[in-house]
TrEMBL record:
<dbReference type="InterPro" id="IPR003593">
    <property type="entry name" value="AAA+_ATPase"/>
</dbReference>
<keyword id="KW-0547">Nucleotide-binding</keyword>
<dbReference type="Pfam" id="PF00158">
    <property type="entry name" value="Sigma54_activat"/>
</dbReference>
<protein>
    <submittedName>
        <fullName>Two-component system, NtrC family</fullName>
    </submittedName>
</protein>
<feature type="domain" description="Sigma-54 factor interaction">
    <location>
        <begin position="138"/>
        <end position="366"/>
    </location>
</feature>
<keyword id="KW-0805">Transcription regulation</keyword>
<feature type="domain" description="Response regulatory">
    <location>
        <begin position="11"/>
        <end position="124"/>
    </location>
</feature>
<dbReference type="InterPro" id="IPR011006">
    <property type="entry name" value="CheY-like_superfamily"/>
</dbReference>
<dbReference type="InterPro" id="IPR009057">
    <property type="entry name" value="Homeodomain-like_sf"/>
</dbReference>
<dbReference type="InterPro" id="IPR025944">
    <property type="entry name" value="Sigma_54_int_dom_CS"/>
</dbReference>
<dbReference type="GO" id="GO:0006355">
    <property type="term" value="P:regulation of DNA-templated transcription"/>
</dbReference>
<dbReference type="InterPro" id="IPR002078">
    <property type="entry name" value="Sigma_54_int"/>
</dbReference>
<dbReference type="InterPro" id="IPR001789">
    <property type="entry name" value="Sig_transdc_resp-reg_receiver"/>
</dbReference>
<dbReference type="GO" id="GO:0005524">
    <property type="term" value="F:ATP binding"/>
</dbReference>
<dbReference type="Pfam" id="PF00072">
    <property type="entry name" value="Response_reg"/>
</dbReference>
<keyword id="KW-0067">ATP-binding</keyword>
<dbReference type="Pfam" id="PF25601">
    <property type="entry name" value="AAA_lid_14"/>
</dbReference>
Amino acid sequence: MSAGKARSRSNVLIVDDVPDFLKETSAVLRAHFGVTVCSSPLRGLRLIKQGGIDLLITTLVMRELDGLEVIRRVRGSGSALPIIMVTGFGNENTAIEATRVGATDYLTKPVEPEELIARVRRALTYADVQEEVDEPLVLSQDTTMLEVIEVCRRVARSPSRVLILGETGTGKELFARMLHARSQRAREPFVDVNCAAIPPNLLESELFGHERGAFTGATERRVGRFEEAGEGTLFLDEIGELGIAMQSKLLRVLQTGDFSRVGGSRNLRSQARVIAATNRDLNQEVQAGRFRADLYYRLNVVTLEVPPLRQRFGDIPILVRHFSRKFTQPDHQPLGFSSEAMQRLCAYGWPGNVRELEHLIERLSVLVTRGEVRLSDLPTHFQGLAEAAPVSPIPTNRPYHEALREFQRTYFQNLIAATHGNLAAAARQAGMDRSQFFRKVQSLRLITNS
Ligand SMILES: Nc1ncnc2c1ncn2[C@@H]1O[C@H](COP(=O)(O)OP(=O)(O)OP(=O)(O)O)[C@@H](O)[C@H]1O
């Protein structure tokens, strides 16, 4: 499908059991797209299965099947159909959940006609790009991470520069790749440069290229990373490590788009979108005079802050499962973990974050041949850890009810992690009956009501 196809009447299916909504929405879209309306979500799903639908608009609250379930079923069938979810006013959390389960976009009622048409067009064009691009998978069930993923999805389609902050190994590059894959530039190159890995005297030529004879050893003309990125994305990792001289050169490109190869006089223009990442506190670097404030503001149009793994224990079992599958040896089942071993993984601080976890699982997949990892299989620094995950310090600079909620979130998150996501076992351990437990973790937004 393409923008061209959108103009040549793509077929939009609108599903809702409120006749007025169907009438109003179809009246708006009919001038631009083919429209099918359907008051039964189940019938809507059948229509999608039959084919010929290019985009689905669904509302959230329907008697037969709610909108989230509709999205889940469409995605569960392996379909990449673009889906726009329309939610009632004040339903931000559901909107986030909708994108998590696979909605392409969402709108809040009342829906402005112009906005609706623009979003449908965009989703159709975007679907066209996605057909050819594999999106990297950022796995998480943590509320803060889900919010970061949601911002990432929203900002991906804009041309804005993004600064990604987070400790080493938290997934900053993965987010950068996701931003690229979800942008209109997805078919263009994604070029990454690790600013810390290149000696400072070579970095200028690496970024901007050089002409033949520009310096000793420059025997050939070389195209730099800005040129390589073309109209795609240039990911500048470890931007906090740039020296002051390079910062000025980078600032010039970001301000004007102009640059020239080292030893060259011709002005070249960069069309690339720049995404930068760092594990340093850039604000502090600016205060200390080590990072130019003007460059910081140029890079920092949108910030994504990726939380460290120790602040999202609930993600550990999910990531463990994911990496166990990834590193399964031929003719073997993915590794399992004894409860004791999993508890220790959840209690550990993970200074190297997800990368450290990934490497550990890779190692274990090779070394442990009996199928289940026991405590004694883990490296020695896991052996001495306390069994339960450490509770984060209780903040005293906040009102009691906020601190209490923080404690409750940590407690239940750790409990769910320690029981590998088995909610019945977690409820037993908490001394609560299942429905009481379920209501509690729902109210803390640790799981959703699906
Ligand atoms: N949420 C996640 N789901 C799945 N895989 C993840 C997730 N987060 C990180 N990873 C994986 O962990 C590894 C490290 O992630 P990544 O390289 O993106 O981290 P980083 O923050 O850019 O690290 P550095 O600061 O050292 O450059 C990668 O293999 C990545 O695919």
